[in-house]
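Researcher: I've been going back and forth with a colleague about how M18 family aminopeptidase might be arranged in three dimensions. Neither of us has a model we trust, so I'd like an independent prediction. The organism is Salinicola endophyticus, in case that matters for your notes. Sequence below.
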Amino acid sequence: MSDPAAADAISDSAVIDRLIDFLARSPSPWHATANLASQLEAAGYRRLRETDSWQLVPGDKVYVTRNDSSLIALQLPTAPLRALRMVGAHTDSPALRLKPQPAVVNKGWLQLGVQVYGGALLAPWFDRDLGLSGRVHVRRADGRLQGLLINVSQPVAIIPSLAIHLDREANSGRAMNAQTQMAPVFLQGGQAEDVTRLLQQWIAAEHGINDAEIVDFELGFHDVQPPARVGIEGELLASARLDNLLSCFIGLEALIGCDGSQGAVFVANDHEEVGSASACGAQGPFLADVLRRVNAALGEAGDEGFVRLIQRSLMISCDNAHALHPNFADKHDPHHGPAINGGPVIKVNASQRYATNSATAALFHDLCREADVPVQQFVTRADMGCGSTIGPITATELGVPTIDVGVPQWGMHSIRETAGTRDPGYLIRALTAFYNRAVLDPAHDD
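Model: Here is an independent structure prediction for M18 family aminopeptidase. You can compare it with whatever you and your colleague have in mind.
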């Protein structure tokens, strides 16, 4: 095709088609991780289990999961491993998770009690068609315990709003009580035992298992409205869980698309939205465990060799950034309002809520220049607080030089978020250039 712009548009459309499919099939962190693993296996990656002894050789492509909700993938170079190009994201999103004993029978309705997972915007959850998804552990007839993924994609619940006639202050910033006002309506005339019965029916329908005794579960509600292109020219993408499945998708696309000449790592941690303090979160030992074992398997056992490897490496933490909102422009610093479809955003915070420093930012600017990708910067207003990412946590736990970047979006932590359809392609190109880059820091012999 002679027109480069037209070729880019076709390429971007194919990327967004794959992204929409991934988002639609990933209503929970466990589903997202399973789908990432399937894509890796289709690309020739071999699964490692943490309980096995690892045998690795240069050129291997491998991945490992923990808790079925976090994943690390590695492309090892054919040459000796000198440095790692790492991209990190997270698989979890704010949500409403079921309580262990969720059934609430109230005024002729069976409702399900929920816990708020992460810093969710609560108002958008009202009046949405809700499905149910997550992980269930069952006991089979032969006594075996088995973990199963469940995705009830049809609308099975709703949280109805109270009519404005009964609450004249509803548009005046009324606070919402998650305990008393946000239990989804599930079944008219239902009883507590109906929850177990329906779960068993869904397990049978999805997995063909009819002897399942429910032992425990981790389930949450999700919006069943599918992802969609929005706008006259399709310049926007609206979907649940863009924060941060968008970065998971982008990081994996870049890893699979890289040339394999360098040591490349993709990390997708769970539990970022609740602080990352878990065995599979960024504050836990998962990444360090995997990298130490890889280093040892390639003949570089010992703390000194590991520290040298980490200090030659770089982590790009990918988590979405706040795009300039046309209705709330005053919420941004006037010189740091990233535009949707304006390219990836470098996120900076002097108090280390982001891990970016001038050295890591300079490298990312250079990557974007090489990939012919526009780049933006974000800093919060000086009179506002700042969120954080896995970047500072990974830098603290591992000691690796780190930068925080992300695709700009609106509506972060809403049940339905909005991003641009050009930005995923931009960041994929920049991260692919990163994975292929021969030298990370000229001061180090890598």
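Researcher: What would you highlight for our discussion?
Model: I'd start with this: The longest strand covers residues 145-157. After that, consider the following. The mean pLDDT is 94.
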